[in-house]
Amino acid sequence: MEVITILMTSEDGADFEDFDHGDARYIFGGLKSSGPRRLIEGPVCAFVDWVLTDMSGQEMCRRLRADPRMSAAHITMVLESCNPEDKRKALAAGADDYVIGPVDRTMVLDRVLALGTGNSGTVIGQPFSLGDLEIDMGALLARWKGKPIALAPNEFRLLRYFAENANRVLTRQDLIDGLGKQEPPIDERTVDVWIGRLRRSLRAAGAGTSIRTVRSMGYVYDSH
Fold first, then answer.
1. Residue 36 CB contacts under 8 Å (≥ 6 apart), including other chains
2. Rounded to whole angstroms, how far apart are CA atoms 211 and 222?
3. Alpha carbons 195 and 151: distance in angstroms, whole number
4. Which three-class secondary structure string do you get for 51-82?
């Protein structure tokens, strides 16, 4: 099943229920000033509010275009009024189109479905490198200094999320949220088990202790 990721800056939007349509699943996630707070899978559509608590929607749009994970995303600016000057500024900041808010789940899905997955942009197939670590999404394979790292699917996704948030302390809940909604739901004990397996695989590939425990806080991937 193809996955299409829909990211939203509005707090309500991040909690919208996922949607299955034919052979595709549309998954919702939150979008903060620091970027996506979950793994980016498949084509990406982002809905950015014109006014945010810590920056303008224009600045958020510019940041997304500079983020390798989001550079090919289809960005819709959610305007507060039908102001021609705001529309012009939204497009100049890098938005693909705009809509007058507020928006709800049905409206968002209607617009994304109308786009078709081929126009949404995707990051799949683009290798991601961080020091000696390479993550090849096209092959679903991670390598350390060119040597493949033996990983189960969940550990592969976990490593990718760590790498995309390198040198940042992630709580167990951050990791659960980052991996997205799953059935059955992930709990903190499961996260610890996955991290234990991931560490063993990294050591076996020669990566040493790349994932460090931060007492009472969580874990951090130290980039090399």
1. 7, 29, 30, 69, 70
2. 6
3. 11
4. ECCCCEHHHHHHHHHHCCCCCCCEEEEEECCC
CA distance 170 to 176: 10
User: Any idea what DSSP says for residue 186?
Assistant: P
Please identify which residue in the block is written with the tokens 């595709």.
24
Q: How confident is the model over 200-212, as pLDDT tens digits?
A: 999 999 988 889 9
> What tens digit of pLDDT does each residue of 89-120 get?
999 999 999 999 889 999 999 989 887 754 44
DSSP lists the bridge partners of residue 149 as: 142
Burial grade of 69 (CB within 10 A; 0-12, 13-18, 19 or more): middle
Q: Residues 145, 149, 150, CA angle at the centre, nearest 5°?
A: 165
